[in-house]
Write a structure and sequence with these properties.
- This protein is an alpha+beta fold and 269 residues long.
- The protein folds into 3 domains: 81 residues, Integrase, N-terminal zinc-binding domain (Arc Repressor Mutant, subunit A); 96 residues, Alpha-Beta Plaits (2-Layer Sandwich); 86 residues, Alpha-Beta Plaits (2-Layer Sandwich).
- The chain is 45% helix and 24% strand.
- The chain has 9 helices and 10 strands.
- The strands form 3 sheets. Strands 3-1-2-9 form a 4-stranded antiparallel β-sheet. A 4-stranded antiparallel β-sheet has the order 5-6-4-7, with helices on both faces. Strands 8-10 form a two-stranded parallel sheet.
- A hairpin with a 2-residue loop joins strand 5 and strand 6.
- Helix 6 packs across helix 7.
């Protein structure tokens, strides 16, 4: 999990930049549209929609945009978005790194062509369905902010330790498989993994116990990883990841590489 968490942290920083460009708004709005279309257009009765709305609010998307996306998914603003479908693509990056891509598209041919170009320009290649998917397992992820805004007279480290002990009990009660502490720009967070059907019950239990749940999502976790040590390979790989994530139709990109913080920093440079 360590390498994956480092990359996730890098992506958090990049997401803030992308939010300014409106890229995050577009991607999350599509999630809301599909979620509203696949279930009832009411977040109270649609966990997928509720999760997408929470993500939208965390990204600073205005309520009017959220309501419009829900209305589109419900078919109240025409059927233009009815063609949006979720597709998973698979491929290889430099050095044989396995890459899994989730997309929402209304044109499979366009999306596949864009992905093929991104791969070929950055030392990789788009593969056939199933070529690397077997290396990944989908898990539910719940992220909890450990340190509250006000810590009183207790030192930050003491507060984190106390909360971690209590949170471990809550994770066990909620059926979490594993958890990991991660340092982010906003402070310490605990990221728990659970089985997909248990994602909603776990997040609900944590909220009932008044924990600050900052992220709830489904994520692909690699079963095995490749260590990347060569700077040139690392630079090409990170450039490929960026190119894939920049595509409008792409919702998420997951890979099975590990690399040092120094090499990962090439992504932010």
């Amino acid at each position: 999990m360590a390498g994956h968490s480092k990359w996730a942290n890098i992506k958090r920083q990049k997401a803030r930049v992308d939010a300014v460009k409106g890229k995050v708004f577009t991607k999350i709005s599509r999630e809301i549209i599909v979620a509203a279309r696949s279930g009832v257009p009411d977040p109270e009765g649609n966990f997928q929609l509720r999760t997408a709305i929470d993500k939208a609010k965390a990204a600073g998307i205005p309520n009017d945009n959220i309501d419009r996306a829900i209305a589109k998914g419900a078919g109240k603003l025409g059927a233009d978005n009815a063609a949006l479908e979720a597709i998973r693509y698979e491929g290889y990056g430099p050095g044989g790194v396995a890459i899994l891509i989730e997309a929402l598209t209304d044109n499979r041919n366009r999306t596949a062509a864009d992905l093929r170009v991104a791969f070929s320009k950055n030392g990789g290649n788009l593969g056939e369905t199933g070529c690397v998917g077997w290396m990944f397992e989908q898990k539910g992820v719940v992220e909890v902010s450990l340190v509250p805004v006000e810590t009183g007279r207790k030192r930050r480290s003491e507060t984190v330790q106390i909360q971690e002990d209590e949170l471990l009990e809550a994770f066990l009660e909620g059926g979490a498989d594993t958890y990991e502490l991660i340092e982010t720009e906003d402070g310490t967070v605990a990221e728990a993994l659970t089985e997909v059907p248990n994602l909603e019950p776990l997040s609900q239990i944590l909220k009932e116990k008044n924990y600050r749940v900052s992220r709830v999502e489904l994520r692909w976790i690699p079963g095995n990883t490749l260590e990347v040590n060569d700077p040139d390979q690392a630079r090409s790989l990170l450039k490929l990841m960026d190119a894939l994530e920049d595509l409008d139709d792409v919702q998420s990109v997951t890979a099975n590489f590990e690399m040092t913080d120094e090499l990962l920093s090439l992504s932010v440079a």
